Amino acid sequence: MSDISYIDRSGEAQFGDFVALLKPRVMSLVVFTAFVGLVVAPMPVHPFVAFTAILFIALGGGASGALNMWYDADIDRLMRRTANRPIPAGRVSEGEALGFGLALAGISCVMLALASNIFAGAFLAFTIFFYVVVYTVWLKRRTPQNIVIGGAAGAFPPMIGWAVATGGISLESVAMFMIIFLWTPPHFWSLALFMKDDYSNAGVPMLTVTHGRRATRTQILIYALILAPVAVGAAFTSIGGPVYLAASLVLNALFIRGALRLWRRDEDVALAEKYSAEKRYFYFSLLYLFGHFSALLVEKGLGIFGMGGW
């Protein structure tokens, strides 16, 4: 722990520190999937409305990140991966992060409702509540199923984007939700595998801590097998088509193959290789999700020119 015991509290918070509170990498995923949900919806949206809606969805995602960092500041100090975040590093106070997060949450939800419709604004508010209260406060420190249930918060953005355009929910928006929902556990569990003792040191009951690495590898494989038919099945909804089907078949074959390789790995070999296969699987999982949602955009583009669909 000597590498994180010293905290420099000199100076005031910089603009970049508040940007870091928003978890910009996570926000980019929120923005992209929400954008896809909005674009592939059957109802056209004025470009200005679409831009403002995505902006406020992004701010809502950032609010969730800031409130998560505020509540988790104590355990962030104990993990090497998070020790340099603005609060544990002493660059932003917990009070500043709380106020910043609450302000962004209120602004984003109200403005999204005004810019699009009340249902979309309420859906964004529910998503922030789910991530902060249900996942961060309730589940994260209590159960190894934290990321399974809490992962729903990260799966809501395409449904919010769809709601901006349509004012409601449909089979297609639920299909996009299910892809992300089932993708989240193997994505984060592969991260937990190569983060070694971070979660154990912080007392977070991640599956790797409570059930061990072998059980975690098994669960990754199980979720990859469950995810595949759901992801491929979206090809046969109104937002799918042959391009999406081809992309999904390839991506899921590679995803399952990677999960099988992880499942077959010997723990001593994994440690000797510094968990290189686990890291590759984690990064491929990002490509997996990006590939599916990009294929949906391609199908929408082809449909505009009368070339998409079945």
UniProtKB/TrEMBL annotation:
Coiled coil: none annotated. PROSITE patterns: UBIA. Its main location: membrane. It is a multi-pass membrane protein. It is an enzyme of class 2 (transferase). Keywords: Cell membrane, Heme biosynthesis, Membrane, Transferase, Transmembrane, Transmembrane helix. Pfam families: UbiA. It is found in: Cell membrane. Its EC number is 2.5.1.141. Pathway: Porphyrin-containing compound metabolism; heme O biosynthesis; heme O from protoheme: step 1/1. GO terms for molecular function: protoheme IX farnesyltransferase activity. The chain crosses the membrane at residues 26-43, 49-71, 92-113, 119-139, 146-169, 175-194, 220-237, 243-260, 281-298. It catalyses: heme b + (2E,6E)-farnesyl diphosphate + H2O = Fe(II)-heme o + diphosphate. Converts heme B (protoheme IX) to heme O by substitution of the vinyl group on carbon 2 of heme B porphyrin ring with a hydroxyethyl farnesyl side group. Belongs to the UbiA prenyltransferase family. Protoheme IX farnesyltransferase subfamily. Carbon 2 of the heme B porphyrin ring is defined according to the Fischer nomenclature. Interacts with CtaA. NCBIfam families: cyoE_ctaB, PRK04375.1-2. This is Protoheme IX farnesyltransferase. It comes from Sedimentimonas flavescens. The gene is cyoE.
